[in-house]
Design brief:
Elements (H helix, E strand, L loop, with lengths): L3 E5 L5 H37 L2 H14 L4 H9 L18 H22 L3 H19 L1 E6 L4 E4 L11 E4 L3 E9 L2 E8 L11 E3 L1 H6 L1 H9 L11 H22 L6 H24 L2
Antiparallel strand pairs: 1-2, 2-3, 3-4, 5-6, 6-7
Helix pairs in contact: 1-4, 1-5, 8-9
Amino acid sequence: MEPIEWDRSFEDSRGARLFAYVFLGSFFGLGLLIAISLVVALPLLVGSLLDEPAMLAVVALFALVGGPMSLLYLWPLLTDPEQRQGIWVSSWPAALSRTGAIAAAILGAAAHVITAWVTGMGPALLLAVGGLVGSLGMSLFLSSGRIDPNARTLTIRPNHWAERSATRTVDLDGWTNLRQYRIGPVVVLWPSYASGSSGPRPRLLTVPPRVADAAAPVFEAAIDVPAPERERATNPTVGAVLVVFGLGTFAVGAALWTLDAVPAAFRAWFAAFAGVFGFLFLAAAWRER
């Protein structure tokens, strides 16, 4: 049986482009607001500086050092290709339209203003939400990999938009079960792994529907293979301690959320922080079952 390969890029996925605009809009929108604020405040600032020539000279000096004169440091990097070797810059924004990026920036700026007005929180909230939702959405719709039916391995490139990112090879014989969910133009694979399996163990994988259909016999054959024996003995005591830590972390996060004297933004940050670590403690305890 021939290997099964696929590669879904931004050009192939409208959903990936949409989530990319969400990601860019949260950051470009904040930059647009800062630029507008500077343009509005610049005449007032220049007017006040004209009354103090010494301060105006200091500001002009810093502007020159941080502006045109900084090109003296970057000139070798800009003119000599050898100086740029080893420097990698993500090229995935080039797959998006300039009009879409501008529209995302305008909508992102409006979202920042509305969020600050409704919740009273700063831009950190929208940056976190936009960055998380955008990156997760892109990871869902973008996928690239190869399935070798003979070796029963699945090779994926987790960071699809980074052309130089390393690949990960999953041993399909370590699967004990597989659940599949169709979400639009992709199929989400949710495998379960044997306790003693080695190597990478990604919990969620996305493939095009044609790949899921073509690889169905390979998945079934891999799951039918007896699971390897467990290599590491469980420790119920460690599991119990981790459960206590996890529940205690959740309790601390809930207690911090009830402190009205603390600003809402800090309470939300601490509660989210406690929730993440509480989940990690409980996940580690689950492995000791």
